């Protein structure tokens, strides 16, 4: 694993670029609160200005111009997009994010009052009915049916995830996000349910419920993915105790109930950083190609020196791109749909 380099840039509210090997990671923070005025109820919504949107657009355009250089773009701000007003010229943060195909927008504000499953997949598609501009019933928007374009000059597919992060102050909730060779994933942690000695975040294969479906599918079908990024199962482990073993298990649900079809020991990467350890295991990813997004499920077990066992969430995965549906509760739909 390569060293991590950080470059700070002058932009909007906060902007930084990390470099790992030949890939860059751009993080843009934004502040859409009103510059002056009373507090509630006007602070219930974010008010991005045309100037702010122009600055974000300009900053992202700078990195879009570097063709052939892989970059992952993440933005973060306080307000969910459903709580962000249009600018004076009727422009929105959502349109800017779609234009530049960021991977994810991280937000807060709602403090888990409406649930801990506040996520929404946004995608631009000219064939959608106008109602999709205002609401969607499923957390994961229906993927585009447009023809595959594998040209190196083809424009990127316009989609991104919005992830509400909960809050630490009252809910004691947090998320750990990982960017693994361009693949973005996260782990939700709830300390109100008790403290844990070990956390495990699978970083590949991606959870088929929360990945960028159209982009991932095109990348796989057009063979634009970096081969070695598919050739191993990977995870990050955080623990207060030395780790003795990490085992990955894959289950097949086709017969109706999950049955174990693969079990393999994962090996630790030797790195020169102290936060979290990366484990990997080789596998034949092509053996898991399937039109169903939730036929195969992954779970990772970590055992520490005290003999304590920690299991990751059993989750579906898809190596070739189909997405598994996941629905909101009515409260979640009310604020995110």
TrEMBL record:
Which UniProt key words apply to this protein? Signal
InterPro entries the UniProt entry points to: Ig_TMM62, Metallo-depent_PP-like
Species assigned in the record: Populus alba (White poplar)
What's the protein name? TMEM62 Ig-like domain-containing protein
Signal sequence range:
1-17
Stored SUPFAM superfamilies: Metallo-dependent phosphatases
Q: Which Pfam families does its entry note?
A: Ig_TMM62
Per UniProt, residues of the TMEM62 Ig-like domain are 195-321
């Amino acid at each position: 694993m390569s060293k991590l380099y950080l470059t700070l840039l002058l932009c909007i509210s906060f902007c930084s670029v990390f470099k790992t090997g030949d890939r860059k990671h751009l993080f843009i923070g934004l502040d859409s609160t009103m510059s002056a005025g009373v507090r509630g109820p006007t602070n219930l919504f974010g008010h991005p200005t045309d100037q702010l949107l122009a600055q974000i657009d300009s900053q992202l355009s700078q990195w879009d111009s570097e063709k052939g250089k892989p970059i992952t773009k993440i933005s973060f701000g306080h307000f969910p997009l459903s709580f962000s007003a249009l600018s004076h010229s009727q422009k929105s943060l959502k349109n800017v994010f779609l234009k530049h195909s960021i991977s994810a927008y991280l937000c807060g504000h709602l403090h888990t009052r409406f649930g801990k499953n506040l996520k929404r997949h946004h995608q631009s598609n000219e064939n959608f009915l106008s109602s999709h501009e205002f609401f969607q019933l499923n957390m994961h928007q229906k993927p585009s049916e447009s023809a595959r374009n594998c040209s190196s000059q083809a424009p990127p597919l316009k989609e991104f995830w919005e992830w509400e992060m909960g809050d630490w102050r009252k809910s004691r909730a947090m998320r750990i996000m990982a960017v693994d060779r361009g693949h973005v994933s996260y782990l939700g942690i709830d300390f109100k349910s008790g403290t844990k000695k070990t956390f495990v975040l699978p970083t590949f294969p991606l959870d088929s419920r929360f990945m960028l479906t159209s982009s991932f599918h095109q990348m796989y079908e057009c063979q634009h993915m970096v081969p070695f990024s598919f050739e191993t199962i990977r995870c990050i482990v955080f623990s207060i105790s030395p780790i003795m073993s990490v085992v990955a298990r894959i289950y097949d649900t086709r017969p109706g109930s999950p049955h174990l079809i693969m079990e393999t020991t994962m090996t630790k990467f030797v790195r020169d950083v102290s936060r979290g350890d990366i484990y990997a295991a080789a596998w034949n990813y092509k053996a898991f190609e399937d039109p169903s997004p939730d036929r195969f499920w992954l779970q990772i077990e970590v055992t520490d020196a005290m003999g304590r066992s920690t299991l990751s969430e059993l989750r579906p995965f898809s190596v070739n791109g189909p997405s598994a549906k996941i629905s909101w509760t009515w409260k979640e739909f009310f604020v995110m749909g």
